Amino acid sequence: MGRLFPFYLWRPGKEQQDEVLKEGVREGFNYPNPGATEGATPSDLIALSSPWVVDYKRVQVGKGSKAYEEAKAALKRWTHFQLGWAQVRNPVGAGLPVSSPVQRFQFGHGCLKGHLLAGEESFAVEWDKEDDSVWYEVMTFSRPAHPVAMATYPLVRFYQRQYGKDSSTAMVKAISNSS
Predict the structure, then answer these.
(1) Above 60 in pLDDT, residue 93?
(2) pLDDT per residue as tens digits for the range 108-164
(3) Would you say residue 10 has pLDDT above 80?
(4) pTM for this entry
(5) Could you tell me where the DSSP H helices lie in the chain?
(6) Separation between Cα atoms, residue 117 and residue 8, nearest integer Å
């Protein structure tokens, strides 16, 4: 097993981030079954059993094809992560489009060895053509994988729940601002 990712009390610079990412990619994922959130339901993830904690948030962000396209674009820009207290710098260039009476765009990412947590997050926008509603969804499974996360787990869980709320608010705001 590789070394643990460094824990910074400040936002690391781009060079530090690149170094940590490069080592994480070399070491690989820190959990079994990468891709488990693809096409999964919260019940599917709960069936993974302990010690995984499952979080799920779904909120309506608009109506119609224009709202769906705007929500998809916002998801690709990682609008749901640009919250001030949580940020990601790598936008997504691909996703999993799914078409049926429900059109869905989804992607996920997983934790690499050495990360504070083990697990995976999945993000989706969905357009239900039967009622024209557009939804944003975030689904995760995780557990502590670093001594800092274990020692501060109640705080970690607070921020995980807060992320679901704040990312949903950011997506609703992004769609309503573009209309």
Answers:
(1) no
(2) 888 888 888 999 999 999 999 999 999 999 999 999 998 989 999 999 999 999 999
(3) no
(4) 0.81
(5) 14-27, 42-46, 64-76, 147-151, 153-178
(6) 15
Please, are residues 17 and 104 in contact by the beta-carbon 8 Å criterion? no
pLDDT for position 9: 61
Distance, in Å, from the CA atom of 104 to the CA atom of 134, rounded to the nearest integer, reads 9
Other Cβ atoms within 10 Å of 133 Cβ, number: 17
Phi, psi of 14 (to 5 degrees): -60, -40
Question: Which alpha helices (H) appear in 117-152, and where do they start and end?
Answer: 147-151
14-178 CATH: 3.30.530
Omega before residue 32 within 30° of 0, cis = no
Nearest alpha carbon to residue 120 among 138, 105, 137: 138
What's the DSSP call for residue 20? Answer: H
**One-letter amino acid for residue 28 of the chain:** G
SS3 35: coil
* Cα distances (angstroms) measured from residue 115 to each of 47, 137, 154: 24, 24, 17
- Give the model confidence (pLDDT) of 154-174 as tens digits: 999 999 999 999 999 999 999
Q: What is the DSSP letter of 90?
A: -
The pLDDT of 55-63, averaged and rounded, is: 94
> Which residue in 135, 175, 140 sits closest to 161, CA to CA?
140
